Amino acid sequence: MSFPIVRPRRLRRTPTLRRMARETRLSRDQLIFPLFVREGSNVREPVASMPGVFRFSIDALVEEAKRVQDLGIPAVILFGIPSAKDPCAKGADAADGIVQRAVERLKREVTDLCVMTDVCLCEYTDHGHCGLIEGDQIVNDPSLARLAATALSHARAGADIVAPSDMMDGRVAAIRSALDANGFQDVAILSYAAKYASAYYGPFRDAAESTPAFGDRRSYQMDPANQREAFREMELDLQEGADALMIKPALPYLDILYAARQRFDVPLAAYHVSGEYSMIHAAAANGWIDGVRAMEEALLSIARAGADWIITYAAKEMAIRL
Ligand code: PBG
Ligand code: ZN
Predict the structure, then answer these.
(1) In CATH, what number is assigned to the domain containing residue 208?
(2) 165 Cα–ligand 2 center, Å
(3) Distances in Å between the alpha carbon of 290 and those of 102, 303, 313?
(4) Around Cβ 216, how many Cβ atoms within 10 Å?
(5) Domain for residue 3, yes or no?
(6) Which residue CA neighbors atom 5 of ligand 1 most closely?
(7) From 263's CA, which of 89, 198, 213, 247 has a CA 20 to 30 Å away?
């Protein structure tokens, strides 16, 4: 059977028919809002390269998190900007560190919100790499204890989910065993499993002050050309005890997300990263595209490809529209 009997346009004729024929829906329940926290009080500092994104002091962060919860967004992911950095990332696992204090306050004052933390060293190292260095090498095994201690300190502060983003080998196992050995069996791990060495992190590094002082991240983040390797990373992280897997960035890697959806039965998260967000804003500011529609289309395509969770700087605007 074909045209003129078959006419796909029949079900596109009216808004109501289109609503009935719609296959994918974005839901607030999928959204995760990234938040940057820094020292100070009453601070709400705009990030120049990310319109609508701010760095908050802890008091202002609590107010923002209440608004996020009131909009029906279930979760936030926290990134810390410490006032001091050093070669070993001492601030990363400090019991009174910026993220640890922020998590304590959020869990006390915004009680229903799921608090996730990004576990990495790059915001806390003076060289800006995600692991420890020896000479110009980013060394794997010595970094694991620092990452595990960081995740444990977040769990002690009350984090519901820890999300390692460093891409060191074996870090999920190291974190799982540190958590379990200290009574945090119920803290979940969302692993940034397929994290690519991407040009799209530029605005984030501006926001988090985490640009590497030398070299780049290609010896630990993945080569954008690789798909099979992503499945291997995801399988390994599941074996090591990850509860959920992340693919990052999102739009340039929808093929990875789609294929991961067919292979794995755990929740899949996609991170619509800073560069993806800022490009839409920049084009909209020039009057070249409708920014709201472009953002919605981007997030919808991420859901259509198979993401359960979408990490997006546009979560609040989107929650208002949904
Ligand atoms: C830290 C981290 C990065 C992002 C999330 N966690 C930056 C990086 O790896 O360089 C990027 C997020 C974004 O661009 O929105 N490891
Ligand atoms: Zn990092």
Answers:
(1) 3.20.20.70
(2) 6
(3) 35, 20, 17
(4) 11
(5) no
(6) 165
(7) 198
